[in-house]
Each structure stands twice: as C-alpha cells, then as structure tokens.
Amino acid sequence: MEKVHAMVKALAFKGEKAKAKKRKAAPTAEDGPDEKRIRELASDTLEDDSWVNADVSGDISGPVVIVLPSVKPTCIACDATGKVFASELENIVENDPTTAEPHDIRQVWIANRIAGTDKICFKGHHQRYLSSNNIGSFSARNEAISPEETFDCIASNDTPGTFSIQTPRETFISISDDGKDIRGDASTISFNSTIRIRMQARFKPKLKASKELKAKEKISKKELENVVGRKLDDNEVRKLKKARVEGDFHEKLLDVRVKGKHDKYS
Asked: Can you say how many angstroms the Cα of residue 86 is from the centroid of all Cα atoms in its chain?
C-alpha cells in the first residue's frame, strides 16, 4: 500500500515559551488589493493550535491524541522503539477527556486518510505507523502502510463525540479494566472501547471553513473603496461583503465599478 506523508508544523505544549512566528508569505505579483488582504487575514485566523474534539470520522486529520476510557485518563502513546503503551494525560481539566491535550510528543499521532477509502492510519513521532497484529497486540515499527496499519473510526450513536476504532479484522481497540493494557481484539463495542479523539482546531473542516469565512468578512469600507477606486454607499458595501462570502466577489466588483462609471457620466 502506498506510503502517506503528512506535512504538519512542530507541536507546542502548554508551559513552553512561544517561538517567534515566521513572517507571513509575501503577496504574489498576481494578487490584487483584495487578494492581498484575504491572504493577510487568513494567515492570522487559520493558524489555530488549540485542541478540540473530533465529532465525526471526517474530522480526523493532522495531529491527534487518542484518549482511552480509563479511570485515570490515558491515551495511546509509543516510544522510540515502537512500543505502544497507555500514557497518563497531565494536561487535562478535572479528568474530563474532552479537555485533554498532550504534554509529551509520544502521545501525538498524525492521522491521514487512505486515498479512496474511509480508513485512517496513525503515524507516530518516530515516523512509523500504529499497527495491530492477529492476536490483538499493538506496535508502531512499520515505515510503510499495509492493511494492519489501517483503521475505521466509527462514530458512536449513543455518546456523541466518541468513536470505536476498528481494526482490519473487524475487532476493536480497547483498554483493560485496570487501564494498563491496550488491546485490539475486542469483538464487541463496549465502554472500554469508547474512545475520544482530540485534534488541532486548524485541521477540523467546520472550524477551518468558519475561520476562512470570517477572514473573508474582515474587510473595511475603506479597503473596499480602495479596491473599487471610489466612495461607496452602505448598500454597495453590504453587496460586496456578501459577494466575498458567496464567492462571486469579482463579478459584483465589476458591476459596482461599471455603475460608478455610468453615474460619473450621467
């Protein structure tokens, strides 16, 4: 199976000093005033490193933490040798799994969807994939993806925001009652196989789309007047802002410019 690569930036953990941000990408020569402004606004709003809950399978992408239903909150982690283990979560509010964040890079996996399927693979910090074998044991030692490195994340109907992660053998990932052993041979869905997936907000489709929308809405009357080349009335401003959101800005911009020329010579 073809190898999947994920391009993600370095993770930041709570308590670490923030590094200086790189300069924003310079506008290209082809960018007009409007395109330049969109690029500037989008770069500010889309770099959201906060952690949120995946709600549906389609959300799962980028850096994730696979939170287990243990009494003391833990998640699936692996060390540099590929050993998979349950790692205690420290960045969590009142043991609520919906607030969990990683404090150790070993707790983070990069989720990627296998092209043409609904299956997902999880790459560890050491560039190897989470894998389940025929006896339900886990490791993370393979550099390439085979069926054993692919999983189905099935959203729960009973508990929104939770998943049952199914292996290629149609068994499920679960945690033992004592919270120590991660297994992949559960034949049925139960509380011990009810998993939450925490992810970075910037990879969540709904949040990403919402922030792109807000970026498009953040333009002032003065900026629109600079694009059009004349003063605008309130109705024209509303018309252009709406067009930016709906995707027909350039058509409406042309209409407003043409109207301005007609008014000038009437």
From this structure: 23
Write b or e for each residue in 230-251: b if 16 or more Cβ atoms lie within 10 A of its Cβ, otherwise e. eebeeebbebbbebbeeeebee
Helices assigned H by DSSP within 220-266: 221-228, 234-246, 249-265
pLDDT at 248 over 50: yes
The set of residues, in sequence order, having a beta carbon less than 8 Å from that of 130 and lying 6+ positions away, is 76, 78, 84, 109, 121, 122, 123, 124, 138, 140, 149, 151
78 touches 140 (CB < 8 A): yes
Closest listed residue to residue 172, CA positions, set 158, 159, 162, 187: 187
Residues 6+ apart with CB under 8 A from 220: none
Cα-Cα-Cα-Cα dihedral sign, residues 100, 102, 103, 104 = positive
Q: How many CB atoms lie within 10 A of CB 15?
A: 8
**pTM (two decimals):** 0.66
The tokens for 44 are 């500010």
Measured between alpha carbons, how far is 218 from 39 in angstroms, rounded to an integer? Answer: 11
What pLDDT, in 10s, does the model give residues 115-142? 989 999 999 999 999 999 999 999 999 9
Six token digits for residue 152: 């189905």
Both tokens of 22, joined, read: 């790189």
pLDDT tens sequence across 72-129: 999 999 999 999 999 999 999 999 999 999 999 999 999 999 998 999 999 999 999 9
